[in-house]
Amino acid sequence: xxxxxxxxxxxxxxxxxxxxxxxxxxxxxxxxxxxxxxxxxxxxxxxxxxxxxxxxxxxxxxxxxxxxxxxxxxxxxxxxxxxxxxxxxxxxxxxxxxxxxxxxxxxxxxxxxxxxxxxxxxxxxxxxxxxxxxxxxxxxxxxxxxxxxxxxxxxxxxxxxxxxxxxxxxxxxxxxxxxxxxxxxxxxxxxxxx
Length: 194
Known about the structure:
It is a single chain. This protein is mainly alpha-helical. The chain has one domain (2-189). It contains 7 helices and no strands.
């Protein structure tokens, strides 16, 4: 089960990281799919793998269409908030934050991201898709490695739970930042002419 979730996060995260601006509307839909799949899988994990996968796929597809069709006009605000949440989750993992402190950091950064996203839309699309995609891809890689029994010094930044090993959290933060910067630069260099 963790391999399927990891692959979904890894593939969609890499697409968002490197092609978020070019395929923005599709990326919005894919982000909706990830949110729907991931939350439904987490909520129904106790019901068994088959139920949580099927329900996650159904909810993911529904949210894909909602994000693709209806949230497109609010995308700068939504992706700004997603960027804030991704940064907050990475900071939480890096510094072993949990509970109320992690929640407050996530909410504050999401609100700041939403406000800034509305102000600088093109730049926000590139930044948010690059860094939220990087966080998703690293989370997917960490989940795949854990499922296969491969020891990587990574933690899943999309989970946001406290990590007792701060070194692993800091390594994860560095990997997310480096991948996000590379994705942002790739998007900026390969942007279609407007």
